[in-house]
Amino acid sequence: MAVEAILISGVFFAFMAAAALFDAWKFIIPNTIPVVLTLLFLVVALIWNDRVPIFEHIGAGLLVFCVGAVMFRFGVLGGGDIKLLTAVAFWVGWDLLAIYLLVVAILGGGLTLFLLTLRHLLRRLYRSRSLEYPLPQILRAGEKIPYAIAIGGAGIWIAPYLPLLTLAA
């Protein structure tokens, strides 16, 4: 594997993991994460523009952003989630977009069920034992679901199939 491929893949993986960790810890995805992922996509796509349909990838990202903006308007997803989904959609392109979004939905559903169940069990445990230990925000009842865990997890899962990461190899 070429040094460029290792570097590009490493940055992609690191930023997917960072987004998930930030969202789990602070319920925020720093803007630098989707910005760097988008800029890296543009650089890599311009380098291999003869082998990758760049406008199809950009179209996939713009579609995700537009649908995401509507979802944000109705409170379905947060702004950071939309920006991260858009950045990953640039990498994914049309060919893998449906599969990627399906994996995001499956991981997000599993994450939601897991966290709601864990939060419920912890709430019952705290009530029955009168424990006063503060829980991390992610484990508190009524908190949001840090969806970047699902978005990043699906991004890492689909990475070996991404044309822009496999072309560098």
Task: Explain this structure.
The radius of gyration is 18 Å and the shape is elongated. The protein has one domain. It has 169 residues and is mostly helical. The chain is built from six helices and no strands. Helices cover 75% and strands 0% of the residues.
Summarize the structure in short.
The chain has 6 helices and no strands.
Biggest sheet character: none
Low-confidence stretches: none
Q: Helix and strand succession?
A: HHHHHH
N-C termini distance: 5 Å
Range of helix content:
over 70%
The SS-based structural class is mainly alpha
Strand content: under 5%
Domain unit count? 1
Could you tell me the mean pLDDT? Answer: 90
Number of helices: 6
The number of strands is: 0
Gyration radius over CA: 18 Å
Which of globular, elongated, flat, extended, rod-shaped describes the shape? elongated
Task: Present the secondary structure layout.
Elements lengths: L2 H24 L5 H16 L6 H20 L5 H51 L18 H11 L4 H4 L3
Helix pairs in contact: 1-2, 1-5, 2-4, 3-4, 4-5
Keywords:
mainly alpha; elongated; 169 residues
